[in-house]
Amino acid sequence: MCPELLSSPLASHTIPVITFLLREVGVDSTFDLRQALRRRPRLLACSVDHQLRPALYFLQSLGIPEPRRHTYLLSCSVEGKLLPRIEFFERNLGFSRRSAAAMFKRFPQLFNYSIGENYEPKLSYLVGEMGRDVREVLEFPQYFSFSLENRIRPRHVACVERGVRLPLAVMLKTKEDGFRDALEVCCDSSPPLKTSRLCCVQKDS
């Protein structure tokens, strides 16, 4: 899974990494440490000074809470992976650095997704097929975590067939039964209550 581990001197390399995770990142138990290393064993092959600590400082600069919950990102290159994903939203969508960074603060898993295989096709569908404003992903960056073919497209088609426009979060996060119920509520003649998550639903004419 990670060949570099086979050539890493245990005492001189692995122990500093573990010390860094415990003391600087804040991993606070043996169980959590094992979970972090099981999820991303490559952490043990990374340089603390040249890789892990710069990545930690970058995540902290974004205001991401509890970096210990996102240790899998520490093995990612700041210049090669993390920063380019923020810059993609600035360069291609016109988001400000502050707005783009806020997306990743809200949903750090966004760093894991491919620009070409995830961001671009899903944004193309959001704007081209769904007719939505790209700025909707600022409030709901979890949009990128859903499968285009298995969740986004089928639910959008279901909404189109019923003449309903649901908020992205309601359309995608809701379980299947809840999604169908939301469609029924929106197709009913009575409008949803103002306190309901459906209050911003639009009925297409």
From TrEMBL:
GO biological process: DNA-templated transcription termination
A Gene Ontology term for the protein's cellular component: cytoplasm
GO MF terms, alphabetically ordered: nucleic acid binding
Lineage top rank: taxon: Eukaryota
Keyword Transcription: yes
Signal peptide as annotated in the record: none
Family, similarity comment: Belongs to the mTERF family.
Protein name: Uncharacterized protein
Source organism: Brassica carinata
Organism ancestry: Eukaryota, Viridiplantae, Streptophyta, Embryophyta, Tracheophyta
